[in-house]
Design goal:
Two copies of one chain form a homodimer. Helix content of chain A is 77%, strand content 0%. Chain A is mostly helical. The termini of chain A are far apart. The structure holds a DNA duplex (18 and 18 nucleotides).
Chain lengths: 204, 204
DNA sequence: GTCTATAGCCAGATAGAC
DNA sequence: GTCTATCTGGCTATAGAC
């Protein structure tokens, strides 16, 4: 991919690095490939970002800060659990279809280096599900929801929304769908997943 | 880890390679580390497996063949959907607690090289959800289940069971649990997950 | 079968001209 | 700021002695 002249070099590098790191991972990525993709040479990467490690961290923090507001909404806004589930599912799946490598990139690199999440948490919003858990307990007591554990519900919501994108090659193999069929399945999930969750937890 | 003399060298190498590849991935793994872990030297790795690529493939196929029977059960045995969900959830989570790096390893390496699943499928049981989908349709028509799409249900079952292990560092960060707390959450899921699914799909 | 030593290559990083 | 050329180290793989 050639450099587009209307962006400055630093942004150009970050964009190229994002593409290479998110598809190849830290260990599989090559500085040469990033340089080629940015339309510059290796020396420039070091001029702007000093080392591969620091360039990687810039990409990672950037990716994480894209995801954080999505998650924050379900944890901390004012709507009911049912509304949160519906909005999050629809918004998140729409978002990931636009950034398909993002969840796998985050998960993979956190598994490679779990301490990384500590560094991130310092200078961004705290990841905290306490408020969400309190709200679940409240709605259970009010008879809106069946008896439900807040932390398990949170894990279930994450799992149902994120997993299919992370395990895309497996899903495609099992369902025998091509790229187009996979896309269709994911579009369906924008509403299917919230129905599935609400059906399970709502008091009828 | 020193070599235990009651195993032959080839098995010893495979065991060491499994540990290193499953934690570091293909790109992050080092032949030297595998040799050290097996208590031998690098030359022996090449003597038995010729190249890093072939050693990796041996490990991958081995891991996949451990997982296949687990999945086959839910796809092809004779029990009802409800029984399948309950048995699979309990058995699968028990299995993964014993092999915690396995799902992430499979998913990560399939994302790195999606064609890999084709090679595997040739000489193992076909991954096919057709029978499962037919059974779902049947139980829906019999009034046992609410209207449910078989392929989406299958994705949901996979997601709820596998995701927490793949995204372990994220889950720990959000729930603020340590290793022990995480283990407890997973133990709970052996029954919580099947309740969650059954609640959602069973006709009442 | 198992070892030591080393070939050969490739990647990250830097020096230095412009 | 941007380039070419090069250093340096680490990695896979092999040669060859025992």
């Amino acid at each position: 991919m050639a450099r587009t002249k209307d962006k400055n070099t630093e942004e150009q590098i970050l964009e190229a690095a994002k593409n290479v790191f998110q598809t190849k991972g830290m260990d599989g990525a090559r500085m040469q490939e990033i340089a080629d993709s940015a339309g510059i040479n290796k020396a420039m990467l070091h001029y702007y970002y000093r080392s591969k490690q620091l360039l990687f961290e810039a990409v990672f923090k950037n990716a994480f800060s894209l995801l954080a507001p999505q998650l924050n909404k379900i944890l901390n806004d004012a709507s009911s659990i049912e509304e949160k589930v519906r909005n999050f599912t629809s918004n998140y799946i729409t978002f990931i279809i636009k950034h398909p490598y993002l969840p796998n990139f985050i998960i993979q690199e956190l598994n490679r280096n779990p301490d990384f999440i500590l560094k991130i948490q310092e200078n961004s919003t705290l990841l905290n599900i306490e408020k969400f858990k309190t709200q679940v307990t409240l709605e259970v007591n009010q008879g809106i929801l069946k008896p439900t554990k807040g932390d398990q519900l949170f894990i279930n919501i994450m799992a149902l929304n994120i997993f299919p994108f992370v395990a895309k090659p497996l899903i495609k193999a099992f369902t025998k769908e091509d790229e187009k069929g996979f896309k269709t399945l994911m579009e369906q999930r924008k509403t299917e997943v919230s129905e599935f969750i609400i059906n399970s937890i709502k008091q009828h």
